[in-house]
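Per reviewer request, we include the raw input and output of the structure prediction for the construct analysed in the revised manuscript.
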Amino acid sequence: MGDSNEEREKHLCSLGCRDCNPFFPTLQLISLVLLAALLAAFLVKGSEVHSFQEQEQEKQRIHQELEQLKAGLDRLCRPCPWDWTFFQENCYFFSTFKQTWMESVTACQEVGAQLVVIKNDKEQSFLQRMSEKKGHAWMGLSDIKKEGKWVWMDGSPLQWSKYWSPREPNNVGDEDCANFSDNGWNDSLCLTEQFWICKKPASPCSR
């Protein structure tokens, strides 16, 4: 009779009877914990995906605003590059370091400009004031080809002498290149390193 009851209990256990296995409540608890952990992980992952999507959307929005701002800046009329100065329909670049006269000529040519050629009194006054602030600077004037015959970079001869400093040009030590000094023009040795000024026409604004 006892054997019969034992066999009956084994049969019920094989069918999934909960009371037959003393470890079943523990397994059930572990399963619930694992399920809760998986659900929490899923929710966190979903939150991260949502946050990532929001970040991407924010990046796209900022990028679009920057593109619109750039397009607006491009439409603004700016006749000279950012580091150049506009005056009388021309652009002027005042160097921040020193070079020889010939090196200065090349530096201006490399940016599509010319070592400055002075055309009128207002331009001279403007450049003289700027050079007094920034330091002595080369201009595009020399008598390298023939002593005493001063010629501008564009090939035009010097038409006046009123801007030379007192007792200049004096050609001391074979000084063949002109620069702005404290109170006017001065002739200096071309191999002397000084600041320089480039000049080029301003870009027209489209209407």
